């Protein structure tokens, strides 16, 4: 039977359908205003550029900007949710109908001491993931810290107040970076107080320094080339040894030699690194470490087993740690899960995978860890729990596993905090606790005490490790 539809109804249906098509086109565009789920960010995207803002309940501050063409490939949109992928991390944003009023031009004094304190405190209150774990009474800590601030409080005093809060919070990735002038004034004040106390002067070692001392002693055949960040070669009895000093600084950034000579490698590197967008930073770091690992694995492929030493490695980029670890992995596998604090709960869980190597080293691998193995090195140890051919020797890692959520205060100071929870595949987390070892060597927790204990008897240090390997092999 034929149904006669009134012309007005047909027109109405046509308008509705056209409206839906227009709406879908709009919703499928990445252009617009977006709010992050769990990370306190606003993202503004137009046809040519993007702008990030750090947002709290009392502030909205510009954080980063760039060309959309540089980051567009990392973005996907589905059902009005924007997902940005960086390495193995996925950050989700929901669309807003308009730019928040808070993000319009603010009339507040960006250097006001109380305002900066409140932005700092508000960020921690909303995003710090470990109040319960670290048994923190936030309301009391906030009140006591706020009571120290009045109209006469200086920037140096504000910095010291914030530093004291970070100590109380026991945040492994908590940090505050003021201007160089404020930092120096504060350090001089703190040092003056320390000088008033009688302290015994003992030799102090840097992380890279002690790592180099150990590697030089262990290696009978040093095969290191084209880097100072790693050392590798062979010990006695055809045992491979890899000393990894850091999990970053591997990108080839064509640094100016005169700048390196004047300012040092790390400072020059970071200046160049900060000029890259997030996606470029990850890609360049992975490319750099991948090239090195190709050379290392070729040099050590005939060894009977390999020792990987990260006892003095304070971390860097998780993607670097996984790029190293995957050289010992024959099958792609899930190795961890992450989520971030969001309101009174958490964001959607993101599974993390370890990719396989084309020609993996599947003979025994022994990962040396200590309390100084932190951040991305924690991540390496956590991921290693899924590798059957790998055993850990030494002591628990540091337990600084959450990523550092980077933020900026109104006065321009940078700060960071731990807002994420990483777990193994059994939903167990190791923040603060550290990833355990298969063979415990009871290293001192205190950094310099541990470094000196190793440096003062390198032969004993090596002997303990080789004995541990022998016992693990006999099990």
From TrEMBL:
Organism lineage string: Bacteria, Pseudomonadati, Bacteroidota, Flavobacteriia, Flavobacteriales
Domain (Tail specific protease): residue spans on this chain: 252-442
GO molecular function: serine-type peptidase activity
Matching InterPro entries: ClpP/crotonase-like_dom_sf, Tail-specific_protease, Tricorn_C1
Organism, scientific name: Polaribacter pacificus
Matching Gene3D superfamilies: 2-enoyl-CoA Hydratase, Chain A, domain 1, 3.30.750.44
Any one of the GO BP annotations: proteolysis
CDD domains: Peptidase_S41_IRBP (cd07563)
Protein name as it appears in the record: Peptidase
Pfam families reported in the protein's UniProt record: Peptidase_S41, Tricorn_C1
């Amino acid at each position: 039977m034929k149904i006669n539809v009134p012309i007005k109804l047909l027109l109405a249906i046509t308008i509705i359908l056209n409206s839906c098509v227009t709406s879908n086109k709009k919703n499928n565009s990445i252009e617009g205003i977006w709010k992050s789920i769990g990370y306190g960010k606003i993202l503004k995207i137009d046809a040519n550029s993007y702008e990030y803002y750090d947002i709290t309940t009392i502030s909205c501050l510009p954080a980063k900007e760039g060309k959309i063409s540089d980051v567009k490939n990392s973005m996907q949109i589905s059902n009005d949710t924007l997902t940005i992928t960086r390495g193995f991390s996925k950050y989700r944003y929901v669309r807003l109908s308009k730019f928040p009023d808070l993000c319009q031009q603010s009339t507040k004094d960006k250097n006001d001491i109380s305002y900066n304190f409140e932005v700092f405190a508000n960020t921690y209150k909303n995003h710090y993931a470990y109040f319960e774990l670290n048994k923190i009474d936030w309301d009391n800590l906030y009140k006591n810290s706020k009571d120290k601030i009045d109209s006469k409080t200086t920037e140096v005093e504000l910095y010291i107040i914030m530093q004291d809060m970070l100590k109380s919070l026991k945040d492994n990735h908590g940090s505050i970076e003021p201007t160089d002038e404020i930092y120096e004034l504060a350090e001089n004040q703190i040092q003056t107080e320390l000088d008033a106390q009688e302290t015994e002067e003992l030799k102090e070692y840097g992380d890279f320094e002690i790592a180099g001392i150990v590697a030089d002693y262990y290696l009978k055949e040093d095969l290191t080339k084209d880097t100072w960040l790693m050392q590798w070669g062979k010990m006695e009895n055809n045992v491979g040894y890899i000393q990894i000093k850091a999990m970053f600084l591997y990108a080839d950034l064509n640094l100016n030699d005169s700048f390196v000579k004047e300012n040092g490698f790390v400072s020059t590197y970071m200046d160049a690194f900060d000029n890259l967008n997030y996606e470029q930073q990850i890609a360049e770091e992975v490319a750099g470490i991948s090239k090195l690992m190709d050379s290392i694995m070729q040099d050590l492929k005939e060894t009977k087993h390999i020792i990987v030493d990260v006892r003095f490695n304070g971390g860097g980029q998780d993607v670097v740690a996984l790029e190293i670890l995957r050289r010992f992995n024959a099958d792609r596998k899930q190795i961890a899960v992450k989520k971030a604090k969001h309101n009174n709960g958490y964001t959607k869980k993101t599974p993390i995978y370890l990719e396989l190597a084309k020609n993996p080293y599947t003979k025994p691998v022994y990962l040396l860890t200590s309390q100084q193995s932190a951040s991305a090195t924690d991540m390496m140890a956590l991921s290693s729990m899924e590798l059957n051919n790998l055993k850990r020797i030494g002591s628990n890692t540091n337990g600084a596993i959450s990523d550092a959520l980077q933020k900026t205060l109104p006065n321009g100071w940078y700060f960071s905090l731990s807002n994420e929870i990483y777990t193994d595949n059994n939903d167990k987390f190791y923040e603060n606790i550290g990833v355990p070892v298969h063979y415990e060597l009871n290293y001192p927790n205190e950094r310099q005490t541990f470094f000196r204990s190793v440096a003062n008897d390198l032969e004993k240090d090596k002997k303990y490790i080789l004995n541990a390997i022998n016992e693990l092999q006999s099990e």
